[in-house]
Write a sequence for this structure.
C-alpha cells in the first residue's frame, strides 16, 4: 500500500566470490535510503577496481531525500563515477578497458524511488507475493529477444548470453542509462543482484526464498546458497531492501564485495590532475555531447614549415631583376618539394601496408590463443562432455573440438544444471572447466550414481562424436563479454 508518512528501507547485502572465480569483481551497498549493485568486468586487471570506484562514489547518496530532482542527482553521480573510472585508466594504463554494470535505487521526495540501470545486473520488486522484473538487460541476447529472433527460453542457454552491450567505464562510449521513477509501496521487497544469481538459480526458487524468508540478511544468504548450488561459476552479490513506514534506529549502510575487500581502490581516479589525459584515455562523448569550445587540431607538414626570412617584396613592387632572381629558384624548390612529397607518400604506403600485415598477424595470434584456451561443457549423448574452443561455427568451420567425455550422467543433475547443459557452460581455462566438472560431479554424487574418472576423448575404443552445432552469432556491436 502507498503511504503519506515517512518510509525507509530495512536493507542488507551479501557478496560471494563463487566456487570458480579467484577474485570478487562485484561490489554492493545497502542503506536506509539507497541500494546499489555493480558487477565489474575487464578481467583480473580491472573489474574489481571499476565496481569499487563506482560504489565508493555513489554510497554518499545514502541520505534523506531533499527537494532536488532525485533522478538528476543519480544520473550526475553515475556520470561522475564514470569519469573517475576513466581517470583511473589514465593513472594506471594497465586498467584500460575496465567497466562495470550499475543498478541503483535511491529514495526520492514524495515516497518514490529513482531507479538507474546499465548493464545486465537486475532489479526486482516483490509486491503482493508476485516477483516483477524492473530492469531491462543490456545484452546481445536480450537484443535478439527484443527483435523476435530468439525466445526468452533460448536466451537462457545461448552461447553469447554473457555479451553485454552497455556498461559504465572505459569502453569507448558515453553511458546510456535507463532512468525511471517508481512508486514506493509499504510492504514491497526490492532486490538488486548480479548475474551470478540469475545465471545459476531458477527464478521460481528466487521468488520462493524472497517470499518465505523475512529477514533481509538471511534472505541474501539463502539466495547466494542457491547460486552456489547451481554451480557458482561467477561472483554473486545480492542486495535487499524492505519498504517500511517510519524510520529505523540504525541508519548505517554497509558495503560488500570488492569495495569492502579492497578499500584502496576507492582512491583510484580521484587525482584531478589527470583531467586532460592522452587522446586514447580522454572521457568519451556521445553525439551532441562534444564541448562547443573545442576546435580540430591543424597539422602542418614538414615541407610547409619555414624558417623566418628577410622581408619579402610583393611581386608588384619587384624589379625585373628581382623577379628573375627570386621566382626561378622558387619553381625549382617547388619541383623538389613535389618529388620529396611523392617519395614520402611511397614510403608511407609501404609503412601502412607493413602495419596492416603485422596487425592481422597479431590479431590472428590472439584469436587463435583465445580459442585454444577457451572451453565449454555440454550434454552429449547424456554425458557431461568437455570441448575446447567456441560453441559456434564460422561457415563450414567448427570452432571447437572434443576434449574429454566425463562419466557424469546428465540425468542425475538437477533441472537447472540440465537446462544449462542443453546450451553450454563456458570456461576461460582448463582449470576453470575442471572446477565446474568437480561441482557437477559432487551434485551427481549425491544420488550415488557416478564413479570413476574422466575418459580420454582420444581413446581408440571411443571414437570422438561431432561437437554440437549452434547458430553462428556475430556480436560485433558488443562492448565486452563476461565469462560465465
Amino acid at each position: 500500500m502507498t503511504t503519506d508518512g515517512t518510509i525507509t528501507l530495512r536493507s542488507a547485502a551479501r557478496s560471494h566470490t563463487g566456487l570458480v572465480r579467484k577474485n570478487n569483481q562485484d561490489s554492493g551497498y545497502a542503506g536506509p535510503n539507497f541500494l546499489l549493485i555493480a558487477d565489474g568486468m575487464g578481467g583480473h586487471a580491472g573489474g574489481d577496481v571499476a565496481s569499487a570506484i563506482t560504489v565508493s562514489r555513489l554510497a554518499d547518496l545514502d541520505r534523506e531525500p531533499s527537494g532536488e530532482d532525485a533522478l538528476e542527482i543519480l544520473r550526475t553521480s553515475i556520470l561522475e563515477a564514470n569519469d573517475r573510472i576513466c581517470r583511473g585508466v589514465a593513472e594506471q594504463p594497465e586498467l584500460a578497458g575496465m567497466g562495470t554494470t550499475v543498478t541503483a535505487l535511491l529514495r526520492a521526495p514524495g515516497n518514490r524511488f529513482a531507479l538507474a540501470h546499465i548493464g545486465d545486473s537486475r532489479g526486482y520488486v516483490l509486491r503482493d507475493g508476485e516477483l516483477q522484473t524492473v530492469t531491462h538487460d543490456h545484452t546481445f541476447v536480450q537484443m535478439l529477444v527484443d527483435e523476435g529472433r530468439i525466445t526468452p527460453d533460448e536466451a537462457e542457454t545461448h552461447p553469447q548470453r554473457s555479451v553485454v552491450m552497455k556498461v559504465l567505464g572505459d569502453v569507448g562510449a558515453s553511458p546510456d542509462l535507463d532512468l525511471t521513477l517508481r512508486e514506493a509501496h509499504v510492504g514491497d521487497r526490492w532486490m538488486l543482484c548480479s548475474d551470478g544469481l540469475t545465471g545459476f538459480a531458477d527464478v521460481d526458487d528466487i521468488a520462493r526464498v524472497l517470499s518465505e524468508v523475512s529477514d533481509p540478511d538471511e534472505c541474501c544468504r539463502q539466495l547466494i546458497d542457491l547460486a552456489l548450488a547451481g554451480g557458482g561459476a561467477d561472483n554473486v552479490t545480492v542486495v535487499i531492501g524492505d519498504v517500511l513506514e517510519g524510520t529505523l534506529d540504525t541508519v548505517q549502510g554497509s558495503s560488500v564485495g570488492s569495495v569492502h575487500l579492497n578499500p584502496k581502490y576507492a582512491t583510484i581516479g580521484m587525482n584531478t590532475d589527470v583531467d586532460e589525459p592522452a587522446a586514447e584515455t580522454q572521457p568519451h562523448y556521445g553525439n551532441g555531447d562534444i564541448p562547443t569550445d573545442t576546435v580540430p587540431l591543424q597539422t602542418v607538414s614538414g615541407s610547409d614549415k619555414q624558417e623566418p626570412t628577410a622581408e619579402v617584396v610583393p611581386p608588384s613592387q619587384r624589379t625585373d631583376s628581382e623577379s628573375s632572381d627570386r621566382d626561378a629558384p622558387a619553381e625549382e624548390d617547388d619541383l623538389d618539394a613535389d618529388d620529396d612529397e611523392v617519395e614520402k607518400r611511397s614510403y608511407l604506403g609501404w609503412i601502412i601496408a607493413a602495419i596492416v600485415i603485422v596487425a592481422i598477424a597479431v590479431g590472428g595470434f590472439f584469436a587463435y590463443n583465445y580459442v585454444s584456451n577457451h572451453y565449454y561443457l555440454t550434454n552429449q549423448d547424456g554425458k557431461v562432455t568437455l570441448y575446447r574452443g567456441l560453441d559456434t561455427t564460422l561457415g563450414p568451420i567448427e570452432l571447437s573440438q572434443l576434449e574429454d567425455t566425463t562419466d557424469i550422467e546428465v540425468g542425475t543433475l538437477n533441472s537447472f544444471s540440465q537446462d544449462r547443459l542443453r546450451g553450454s557452460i563456458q570456461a576461460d581455462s582448463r582449470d576453470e572447466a575442471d572446477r565446474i566438472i568437480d561441482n557437477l560431479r559432487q551434485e551427481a554424487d549425491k544420488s550415488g550414481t557416478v564413479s570413476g574418472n574422466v575418459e580420454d576423448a582420444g581413446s581408440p575404443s571411443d571414437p570422438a562424436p561431432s561437437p554440437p552445432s549452434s547458430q553462428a552469432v556475430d556480436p560485433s556491436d558488443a562492448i565486452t563479454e563476461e565469462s560465465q
Observations:
- The chain has two domains: 7-281, 375-481.
- The mean pLDDT is 79.
- The CA atoms of residues 319 and 325 lie 10 Å apart.
- Residues 375-481 form one domain.
